[in-house]
Each structure stands twice: as structure tokens, then as C-alpha cells.
């Protein structure tokens, strides 16, 4: 069966520190991968998505970046965190491009607090 | 006009009530429609998936899509306290494009 993992579950970081959040998918090959941020009262904001290794599309210009070093691994990074980076970060995947369905499945999320 | 509009609530109903949750959208190219349930501090969980117009039923949940009105609904019958969560609608126009989400409706079912 297909599963998605994220870690860490919670993180408290000082302003200006670096960030690395990891997401891995099991049970499928060549998935489309997504990073979202969910802030209170603001819904889900798509940050990045990837249709393959090394292929990253950025939806929102900011101090975050994403990488996909392996087929089922997606990493969200920052060199210097801002207070506004606080939020609930969600990774998601859909079946490979060309599949009949595009149901999107979410990971458990990482709650980031920047102080 | 936003692509997807969803009343944020909160919506509070007594246990056993029929709940109706709705989203409207502006992009007539949308063909794939989904409903997610999100419990507090958890990732969204896919509840219902519908392609194009029509109804889909799964247990106490029914999803309806009216493409002519650009309107989708999720009905919950015999609502339970365990249904208390935020419900998000989502849609896209093809299998390879990112989903567009509503902001979610917070539902409370009171025992």
C-alpha cells in the first residue's frame, strides 16, 4: 500500500536558523510530490511541486526552496527562517503523471514555530 | 473572484443531523473534485473523489457535482461527534495539474 512519511512532527527554531523538512513516499514509483503550508485561517498554500527527480516548480517566491534528490524523497529547506515561516507544513503525493486518477494523499504534517 | 469559494463556518449541528457543505468555483475547466476531512493538527484525509458531474455515495457521505452551476456539495447523514473536523474541497482540470483548495469549513457535531 502507498504511504507517506514526514519528519519531524514538530519543530521550534529561532529566527535566522536553517530548516530542513523531509518527506518520503512508499509503495509507488514516480509520484508527483507537493509541499503546502497551512496557516491559521488561510487554507492550504501550495509552495512547490515536482513531477520528477530534479524537477521543481515554485508557486510562491520566498526564502524557501525544495529539492527532490530521489524519486520518492522531497525536501523543503531554508537558509534563514523568518517569523512568517511559522505554520503547518504538509507534503502530499499523487500517482504518476498519465494515471487516470489524481487523488492527492497527504502526510501527517510538520508544525513549525519560528521564535 | 477567487477560484474556489468555501464558507469557513464554523458550522455547529446536533448529533444525527444532516450536514450540507458546499463550494463554488469559477473555472469551468475543472473536472476532478475532491473532499478532504482534516482533524486538528493532522494532515487532510481524502473522503470523496468525483470525476465530472453527478453524485457519489459512500456510507453516510454523498458528494454532488453540478458543473452547470459550478457548485459542489458534500452531505453527511446521521452526523456523529467524530465528524467534527474541517472539511476542504479541492479540484483540478487535469490529472497532472495541482489541486486548487477551498479554505475549509469547520464543523462541530454536538452530542
How many angstroms does the end-to-end distance of chain A come to?
38 Å
Q: Beta-strand level of the residues of chain B, as a percent range?
A: over 45%
Order of helices and strands of chain A: EEEEEEEEEEE
**Strand-residue fraction of chain A?**
over 45%
Note the main sheet of chain B.
6 strands, mixed
Distance between the first and last residues' Cα of chain B: 37 Å
Q: What general form of chain A does the structure show? A: globular
Tell me, rounded to a whole number, the average pLDDT of chain A: 91
- Helix-strand category of chain B: mainly beta
Counting DSSP H or I runs of 4 or more residues, the number of helices of chain B is: 0
Gross morphology of chain B: globular
> Helix coverage percent of residues of chain A?
under 10%
- Look at the helices and sheets of chain A and give the structural class: mainly beta
The biggest sheet of chain A, with number of strands, parallel, antiparallel or mixed sense and barrel status, is: 7 strands, mixed
| Radius of gyration of chain A, taken over Cα atoms and rounded to an integer in Å | 14 Å
Summarize the structure.
The complex is a heterodimer of chains A (115) and B (111). By secondary structure, chain A is mostly beta strands. Chain A is built from no helices and eleven strands.
Commentary on this structure:
In chain A, 0% of the residues lie in helices and 58% in strands. Chain A has strands spanning 3-7, 10-13, 19-26, 32-39, 43-52, 55-58, 64-70, 73-78, 87-94, 105-106, 110-114. The termini of chain A are far apart. Chain B is mostly beta strands and 111 residues long. Chain B is globular. Classes of the chains: A mainly beta (115), B mainly beta (111). At the A-B interface, strand 5, strand 9 and strand 10 of A face strand 4, strand 5 and strand 9 of B.
Top keywords for this entry?
heterodimer; A: 115 residues; mainly beta; 7-stranded mixed sheet; 4-stranded antiparallel sheet; 11 strands; 0% helix; B: 111 residues; 6-stranded mixed sheet; 5-stranded antiparallel sheet; globular
